[in-house]
Amino acid sequence: MSVTAAQGFRASGVVAGLKSTGKPDVAVVVNDGPLDVAAAVFTSNRVFAAPVAWSRQVVADGRATSVVLNSGGANACTGPEGFADTHRTAEHLAGVLGTSAGDTLVCSTGLIGERLPMDKLLAGVDDAAAQLASNGGFLAAAAIMTTDTVPKTVAITGGSGPAEPGAPTWTVGGMAKGAGMLAPGLATMLCVLTTDAVVDSATADAALREATRLTFDRVDSDGCMSTNDTVILLVSGASGLTATAAELTTALTAACASLSRQLVADAEGASHDVAVEVVGAHSEDAAVAVARAVTRSNLFKAAVFGNDPNWGRVLSAVGTVPESVATFDADRLDVSINGVQVCRAGGVGEDRTLVDLAGNREVRVLIDLHAGPATATVWTNDLTHDYVHENSAYSS
Amino acid sequence: MSVTAAQGFRASGVVAGLKSTGKPDVAVVVNDGPLDVAAAVFTSNRVFAAPVAWSRQVVADGRATSVVLNSGGANACTGPEGFADTHRTAEHLAGVLGTSAGDTLVCSTGLIGERLPMDKLLAGVDDAAAQLASNGGFLAAAAIMTTDTVPKTVAITGGSGPAEPGAPTWTVGGMAKGAGMLAPGLATMLCVLTTDAVVDSATADAALREATRLTFDRVDSDGCMSTNDTVILLVSGASGLTATAAELTTALTAACASLSRQLVADAEGASHDVAVEVVGAHSEDAAVAVARAVTRSNLFKAAVFGNDPNWGRVLSAVGTVPESVATFDADRLDVSINGVQVCRAGGVGEDRTLVDLAGNREVRVLIDLHAGPATATVWTNDLTHDYVHENSAYSS
């Protein structure tokens, strides 16, 4: 599992002292090749962190050999000095590994608006480089956690179908962190995926974009977009097996879907995981827009926390989507919650008391627009006392 | 004060039994003329309640003589039967008053997706009609409350400047309710304004739209848009004094600003009132869009609840506004919170611990985009435990 599930990778996670808790806070992932293909997608926030600015440059040529990640500080809104800190971190790791800073990706996560303690960070990078191991994926996953309560990892066997026993296979491994500030643009704050399949950089880039579009981009925990969101794919080719574009896309999508689901399940303070599925839309974009409007309704999300199947709040959220974005007739909308059709043709349907939310962590809201064939599902969480608590006390 | 502050109006508020608490829940406002000019603006939600559908028709000719309002039920998402209930309510009041249903506006507020108990409501309308009085404005304001803790009322003396003592004046009176689901499109759920100035319907309509654009449309308590939002202006002309378009707009804007501020101060569960002021924008729309992005950030609002001047969350919200909407350079953004410039040129400014949020209910966030001359302010509240509590338990 994790980033070392694929062949050709080593990883590590260490305590550098960036976190006041004394928990692991620096991770390194190294691609030992033979390929050094890389792709990445970043937050679309116009206010982005220094490591995002740096890593965009690094991956522009479709190549990278390592990633250094830290929790305990986002290095965002830190000006030219913050960018210099990121540059210095990459130079430092490259120096230790004998590689190039220009092939060294950097990711940071934590509080915005504070400089990183560089002496501790660089000593941590030395330590992490010394501890790199082909079974280090779990330690790396643990070192990137912030308010996550568990590490998120995945391993997917690629190919065109079930492999014969003993037949050679290629693998996608991955780790992610991000229990808050999950929102579109990118859902997770940090994710590193690895594969030992043989693919070129154009294929890797296209597959990663499609996989994230269908998974991380459809998780919206609290409507807030991060300054640091980064999803990286490193390709070692160490299996010697070539993956087709379709095969890689399928495997990456499965890996990202698993990690996305883990992020939702561990979102800050949540007591319910909510899947909002829109069917009958005239286009996929329309379905996503309607689902997203519901996942962003604080009133609906607070009702779910209260185990209240308040479908009126679903409809009032759906109704905020402009006609230019989603075609529908308000008098034809149907809404089911966990299988009970509480709203029929825009009006009262089955008895809402038939819906059991108290007994289910997972809530499925199904909205039928009766306007076409397209569908989409967006995941979110309920709005809870614990969410408010964690996010009101986070920086103190 | 309230809707009877202006001459030519009577109002009342009674207990009809729609609320389980036994508190007042039906209000009537009557315009005794001599004019019967009316204007109204409604929610832009595509899912709108039966009384909104009805009242849009009534006011289309710029005339109305009375308003009947109920709390204890929104009559939204209730299908053709719900519309028939609204129609019947208007017919009933018109029958009692000897007026026309086609001049009778209807407003409802409360839970979505439930039919109103018509026997109780119509008996309440009889009662309210019998109790109409020229000093009934406060009782009417109390009868439209839902989770509001206090009635919201206003009275503004109109004119071109301070009047000579004893000189004749005209007045704008008003009442509003809406402690939750405050959002753009319209901020309040229900508001009735009255004036005894002499104006025509085109002037009334234009002045009301401009006043609401600058006030209710710039309050965004929780980002959620109601199905029932309605702001009505009734013009009696009873003062015999003609108001110019500019004078009426000024007086209505002052009245709406006062009511908006009262709504924010009484928003569900809030412990801080937050004014987000954007300056240096290239256009007013850009300033509003940036301010709105910040007022909708759950992370920022939870931080305010925790008395944490977390300017990084301000910047990460600002950064979500597309370049096509607001021009700015992320490296030039300045942010002050209650006068302390915590962010300078996109980076760390003054020490954030200098900001005292614990000692102030009012929080002023000033964002300078350094991109032009335009400004705008949007009001919101913090995100609190009590908000979650009230909105998770509301329908049960």
UniProtKB/TrEMBL annotation, chains A, B:
It comes from the Bacteria. One of its GO terms (cellular component) is cytoplasm. One of its GO terms (molecular function) is L-glutamate N-acetyltransferase activity. It catalyses: L-glutamate + acetyl-CoA = N-acetyl-L-glutamate + CoA + H(+); N(2)-acetyl-L-ornithine + L-glutamate = N-acetyl-L-glutamate + L-ornithine. The record marks A187, T188 as: Cleavage. SUPFAM superfamilies: DmpA/ArgJ-like. Gene3D superfamilies: ArgJ beta chain, C-terminal domain, L-amino peptidase D-ALA esterase/amidase. It is found in: Cytoplasm. This is Arginine biosynthesis bifunctional protein ArgJ. It comes from Sanguibacter gelidistatuariae.
